[in-house]
Every structure is written in structure tokens, then in C-alpha cells.
Amino acid sequence: MGSFVRLILGVPGAVIVTGGLFLFMAGMIRSDLRLEEEKSAVSINITQQLDDSDINNANREFKRPTLDAPPPPPPAVNDPSNRPALDGVSAQIPEINADLNIGSGFNPDRDAQPLVRIPPQYPERCMSRAAASESVLVQFDVTPDGQTTNIEAVDSTNSCLNRAAIRSVERWKYQPKIVDNTAEWRRGVQTVITFELSDG
Questions:
Q1: Which of 85, 99, 118, 193 could bridge across to 165 with cysteines, CB 3.0–4.6 Å?
Q2: Are 112 and 186 in contact (CB under 8 A)?
Q3: Domain boundaries defined on the chain
């Protein structure tokens, strides 16, 4: 019952409010409210106007520059007393009393030089008691043919490596010692051979 009463009272109220809004909007449309007229846009011209010039007039006004006259040539001197003396200075060449032997500037003498050095192989039997780095001091002679001979291990940090060091030096090749263009023996050559264990 209450909802029926609300329906009867609410419908006429809604019609009145809607009609009032409609009339208000119609009045607004018919009124003389006008928007401000748009202002005219400002025109900005950024291009420079070039004045056409008459090419023929420009050519008429052009004047070639005048070149300066070249300077006059220097005066000729015909007086023979003005010439310098060309006799020069006479002097004696000094004598040097010295017996100098400067040689040819090339000395062919040389000591034995290594050509091929094959590194040694680490023996497996020595790896168990070897340190990370071992060395062997080897002494040998070089023949006139460049071969190594009389090889011996003088000192070593591990005597197990002496034989491997000697075998390595046996395969080395040298340029022989040269004295007066003749190959000679080079005795007592010493070198240190290092053995290093790889981590792998």
C-alpha cells in the first residue's frame, strides 16, 4: 500500500521536474548568448624577400682593379772594381802521423748460438716425488758441426730428472763457434733446464 501511494505522488512530481528542466533548456537556446568572435590569426612570414636586381646594371657597374706597375729592374753594375775577389785562402794540408787499422767494420767471429732446443719430457716415474717446478743444470760441448756432445748433469733439484734432461740436450742443434772464419769447438756450455708439472 505504501509503495502505491509513493507511485501516485512520485509520478506527477517527476513530470513537473522534467517539464521545468525542458522549459529552462529551451529558454537558454533561444536567448541571445553568443560566443566571442574568433580573433583573426596573426600572419608571420619568415622568408626573406629578395629584391630582383638587374644583372646588366651590375655588370656595367663592375670595374676591373688596376694592377700596380712592376718595379723597375735593378741598375746594372759595370764597374770591375766592385767585384769580390775569388782567389780564396791557401793553406797547407796537415800531416797525420798515425798508424790506424780501422778494419773492415765487420767481425765474423761469434760464439755458439742455439738453433733448435727441444723441451724435455717429464718422466712419469719422477712425478710422484717431484715438486711443481724442478731444474737441472747441464754442461756440454758444441762440435764444429753444431752437435752437442759430452753432456752431463752438473746439478739438479731432483736427480730423477737428470736422464731426461741429458736426452733432451742430445737433440739440440747449434750454430758452431766461429773464429777467423773457421768453425771451432765450444766447450763448457752450461744451461738450466726447467721441468714444470701441469695441473691437468
A1: 193
A2: yes
A3: 113-196
